[in-house]
């Protein structure tokens, strides 16, 4: 049985477009590495949602809702 070695997937060429809508535009990815980099940047950017400040903000939302939307 011959063992086959997989190619380096980061350099595999793809042509993928992600349409984020009217406000987000179109993002084009040419390689798997491009997608991986974008995902890492997005996770890093949005990580504040699971950190303390976001939690404090979300706890104040019921107060805001009850005050302004009665």
Q: Can you tell me about this structure?
A:
This protein has 70 residues and is an alpha+beta fold. Helix content is 46%, strand content 19%. The chain has two helices and two strands, in the order ββαα. The protein has helices at residues 32-46, 52-68, and strands at residues 13-19, 26-31. It has a two-stranded antiparallel ribbon. Strand 1 and strand 2 (26-31) form a beta hairpin. The radius of gyration is 21 Å and the shape is flat. 0% of the residues are buried. The model has no long low-confidence stretch (mean pLDDT 76).
Q: How many helices does DSSP assign?
A: 2
The topology string of helices and strands comes to EEHH
What structural class should be given to the helix and strand makeup?
alpha+beta
- Summarize the amount of helix as a percent range: 40-55%
Shape: flat
**How much strand?**
15-25%
Strand order of the largest sheet: 1-2
What's the rounded overall pLDDT mean?
Answer: 76
Intertermini distance: 72 Å
Low-confidence stretches: none
Number of strands: 2
Please describe the biggest sheet, giving its number of strands, its sense, and whether it closes into a barrel.
2 strands, antiparallel
Mind telling me the C-alpha Rg? 21 Å
Write the layout of secondary structure elements.
Layout: E1 13-19, E2 26-31, H1 32-46, H2 52-68
Antiparallel strand pairs: 1-2
Give keywords:
46% helix, two-stranded antiparallel sheet, alpha+beta, 70 residues, 2 strands
């Amino acid at each position: 049985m011959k063992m086959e070695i997989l190619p380096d997937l980061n350099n595999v060429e793809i042509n993928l477009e992600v349409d984020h809508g009217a406000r987000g535009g179109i993002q084009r990815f040419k390689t798997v590495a491009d997608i991986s980099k974008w995902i890492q940047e997005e996770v890093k950017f949005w990580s504040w949602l699971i950190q303390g400040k976001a939690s404090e903000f979300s706890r104040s939302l019921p107060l805001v809702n009850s005050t302004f939307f009665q």
